[in-house]
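Predict structure. Input: ABC transporter ATP-binding protein, 280 residues.
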Amino acid sequence: MTEPFLEVRDLNVRFRDESGFASVPALDDISFVVGAERVALVGESGSGKSTAARAVMGLLPPSAKVAAKNLRFGPADLLSLDHAGWNALRGSGMGFVLQDPRFSLNPSRRIGWQVEEALRLHTRLTRKERRERALDMLSAVGLPSPLRIYESFPGELSGGMGQRVMIAAMMINRPKLLIADEPTSALDRDLRDQILDLMGRLTAEQGAGLLLISHDLQQVTRFADRVLVLYRGKIVDERRGHELSHSDHPYTRTLWAARPSAATYGTRLPVLRRDLGTMP
Ligand SMILES: Nc1ncnc2c1ncn2[C@@H]1O[C@H](COP(=O)(O)OP(=O)(O)OP(=O)(O)O)[C@@H](O)[C@H]1O
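Output follows.
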């Protein structure tokens, strides 16, 4: 692996409610790195996948207490970044694709304006250059008639097209890391692999890393270089993607056995029973 872009060491997150901080942390000292590769975080519902992604993106709510021995993105210490530092990082170093583009795209702005945003905020490109880059990017993500899409509003696009637009907007300024939190779970089954492959291809072409949060073990097995398995806020297993199905770890085996069938495909992983005797 190349030099990692993201380094997470002993990341601990606790949420607070009216009665104080939860006794069980949402993330219990997890450590991992991501370089120019595809890393997936999997685990049942509530295991901490989204909390890990949000901690890395600086998007946890104020009720979260975040501590870590090390939480770095390149030279940036994420624990001490101020508002301006986060804005700079989010527009140029890291991109995010979330579950449903309807919540990420501004419904009242044209697609072109939104795809160009990172260039407008973080580069000195002229209006004409930005437009050219945006049209190239819309074409690179496989959208037909980029010019028409450029002039459209989000409400005129399907979910799959919206997700392609998000990917274009996130990759246009060549980030070092793309974080995708369940990016395909709102899409029809036949679109899921296409969208994932698109993110994989663009990140590889740009020499970037991809951190994928997924509950779809089948998808992850095919796609990820490395898979980190989360259970109750801890990383309990780490495998190469294609090795996940024959992991000898008891929790991974249970998770694999509980993966949705064709009939239940797309649903969240169930919360598994808690009496896995040999669990760490
Ligand atoms: N804003 C919050 N306030 C309080 N507790 C939270 C908050 N967000 C997450 N949690 C708790 O943190 C733990 C991890 O949740 P998280 O959403 O990260 O899990 P997940 O693996 O992403 O689950 P899912 O697959 O259902 O999205 C859970 O116990 C959850 O209830």
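The domain at 6-264 is CATH 3.40.50.300 (Rossmann fold).
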